[in-house]
Amino acid sequence: MVCVxxxxxxxxxxxxxxxxxDMSWKYVKLGTVCNTGxxxxxxxxxxxxxxxxxxPWLRSGEVNNRNIIDSEIKITEKxxxxxxxxxxxxxxVLIAMYGATAGQVGILNFESSTNQAVCGVLPSxxxxxxxxxxxxxxxxxxxxxxxxxxxxxxxxxAKIRNTLIPLIPLQEQxxxxxxxxxxxxxxxxxxxxxxxxxxxxxxxxQSKLNEIFSQRGEGWEICLLNEIxxxxxxxxxxxxxxxxDNGIPFVTQKNILEDGLSFxxxxxxxxxxxxxxxxxxxxxxxxxxxxxxxxNRGMVCIVDDGRTFSIKNVGLIKxxxxxxxxxxxxxxxxxxxRNYVSDNSSGSAQGFIGLGKxxxxxxxxxxxxxxxxxEIIIDSLNDNxxxxxxxxxxxINSLEELKKSILQKAFAGKLTNKMVESLxxxxxxxxxx
Length: 433
What we know:
Strands 5-12-9-10-7 form a 5-stranded mixed β-sheet. The termini are far apart. Helix 6 runs antiparallel to helix 12 (about 370-410). The chain has 13 helices and 24 strands. The protein has 2 domains: about 1-170, DNA methylase specificity domains (Adenine-n6-DNA-methyltransferase TaqI, Chain A, domain 2, Alpha-Beta Complex), CATH 3.90.220.20; about 220-365, Alpha-Beta Complex (Adenine-n6-DNA-methyltransferase TaqI, Chain A, domain 2), CATH 3.90.220. The radius of gyration is 27 Å and the shape is globular. Residues about 1-20 have low confidence and may be disordered. About 35% of the residues lie in helices and about 20% in strands. It is of the alpha+beta class and about 425 residues long.
């Protein structure tokens, strides 16, 4: 089916396209001019399908860059031949169809198989590979809006095949690609410089923490954590989960974030299990929670929420009249403390710091008045750094929106080299603090 738009309508035979289109462009269903396919997953129970495999096998989460250069997992010839997985050639445009990564696009730089959550648009004489890539990048939000499911969007291969795409001469496609390459290179460089500035601001904050907590001399002493307060840990059991309506929140290390305690996506346990665990670790407001396992071990937060909950794989540092909670929080966020956690963690796959090491944590202690003064200094510094990072993040967000705007103009036939030059994307200067 070929459609020539002459009246600016957004629909052709029921298929939605952009509000602004070039009236001279012809639009066709992708499936009529390109071959597509989806992959499959060899049985995980069959070791011979994976052990010593040499054939790349991509999952949807790996489809997140323009150029895909490798796969984390390899499968064997047996795995390929005894599953619905298939090999896609170099130059295939891959589109993630399921879950949190739905709509992400990439270009395959090597021959590879994929799982069933990835759609491959094979190379075609009708389209430049990079043109297809940019088109589906521009169409990402539209595809997701049509996806089935809320928490885990599902884009069907049929929707991808039914997508209307402009069928224009290869020379014009290459001109559009060249313009987009130039614009995106400038934007990406600006974003990279902003990210450096964010890293510099964070580095300043960490260096100040080191400076403050390295003080020694009169009025300072090093104490072990269990000398100034009670230190416990949560259960290491895995209880039966219940519904939110009938349960008590069950907090694990995943709920301890850089900016505090989060109850998003936490599980729930029965009241009986909670009462059993609570006898071991009675969490109350103003206590500190310390992640003991996983990639975020050493992450710490103050309990500032009055709700009742139980903990697992989390250290519990009870509040005490010997220290100010926020002072201890800032110290445990410092590079000094994080180095201690790294040096005293087990070498398991997830990494774990035991209760004994947590209790033996060396803490620089001083008077409560001085602790309060230090809190005020760090609060002020933290506020300043947070404001700086927020401002930079807003700039990044604006640049990402600019990308979307440029893509829309490109595929509405409205983008020219002159327009890209007028963007005046001066590189964000690197700032040292």
